[in-house]
Amino acid sequence: MIVAVILVIVLWGWLRAFAWFDPVAFCRIHIDVELLEGERGPIREAIALVRREDPLAYRALCRWVDRIQEERQCDAGDPQANPRLRGQSAIAPGVLDPALIRARAAPGCYVRGSRVIVLQRPPDDGDGPALVRTRAEALKRLAAYSQSFWLERVR
Amino acid sequence: MTRRRVLMLGAIVVVVAVVAMRYFVWWDVGARCVIGLRPSLVGYDNTTVKRALATLKHGSREDYQKVCVHVATINPNPSCGGFGGGCFWHFEGNRGRASIDVSTEHGLIWTVAIIVHETCHAIQYHEGRPAQFDLEHECYGEDDRILRALVQFE
Fold first, then answer.
1. Number of domains in chain B
2. Which of residues 56 through 85 in chain A touch B, CB cutoff 8 A?
3. Residue B53 C-alpha, separation from nearest chain A C-alpha, in angstroms
4. What residues of B are in contact with residue A113 (Cβ under 8 Å)?
């Protein structure tokens, strides 16, 4: 009996440690963050906000997204494709394709063909309710993109 | 050999096979695609490479088929491309299905882009581009194209 309880606790901890885990909704979404800089807490808060405010969006998130990754930015193109910019380590934002600039400024993006959402890593001072709200809205929108992608494939 | 030893040996073989399949082989029976994944020594495990291959498979079938045809092995360890890039080596051993080096440091999006970029170099090598051809320009164009096709942000 004691062994069973310990096993359940270990299993619960393992399922929850690196993920959003909501057994009632059969929902587990892995959360990847940078080892030293990242925090899963704010991402969990954003998912919790989606669950509270928009059950339909939460259901879509659980069904169509299996991983959330925190990255420096979303790259919707490679600046090196422009020969004038190739080899430059620091590229001034002004010379970039406007689509790339918008992608880099976006709070997150969805990678078509996957069930992965990428969230932009916040600046050091970017924290608090505003960040949670921005991310919650991004999660709703990006989960809908994933849903559309996979449902269109079935049709 | 006793029955117990046979069972233990069988269990060990099964565990080794499962670990090998999970971490060191991309095997897509339907597409007849087998790609070996070298062990990663830097902590970015091979599942990122597998996730990138799965993303290509569903997101861009044509690019996925090119990878299957031209690439035999993916090395996820840092090489000449450092932690953030990839490499293709021009040598006789890469004349058949090639080996490409792909860093997974910058997550799924860039792993997909680097696989497409290095596969482009493998195709160039296999098809024999003429002298003076700008090899990098063609392949940067390819990774730019796949990023624009797959990354949806608005």
1. 1
2. 67, 69, 71-72, 74-78, 80-81, 83
3. 10
4. 54-60, 150
Q: Determine the structural domain holding residue B19 and report its residue range.
A: 3-150
Q: Do A32 and B107 touch (CB under 8 A)?
A: yes
Reading chain B (154 residues) residue by residue, the pLDDT tens digits are 788 889 999 999 999 988 888 889 999 999 999 999 998 876 556 889 999 999 999 999 999 999 999 999 999 887 776 656 888 888 888 888 999 988 888 889 999 999 999 999 999 999 988 777 888 889 999 999 999 999 999 8
Count other C-beta atoms under 10 Å from residue B141's C-beta. Answer: 16
The reply to whether residue B153 touches residue A106, judged by beta carbons under 8 angstroms, is: yes
Q: How many CB atoms lie within 10 A of CB A123?
A: 8
How high is the ipTM of this complex?
A: 0.86
Task: Tell me whether residue A84 is in a domain.
Answer: no
Is A85 among the domain residues? no
Is A118's CB within 8 Å of B144's CB? no
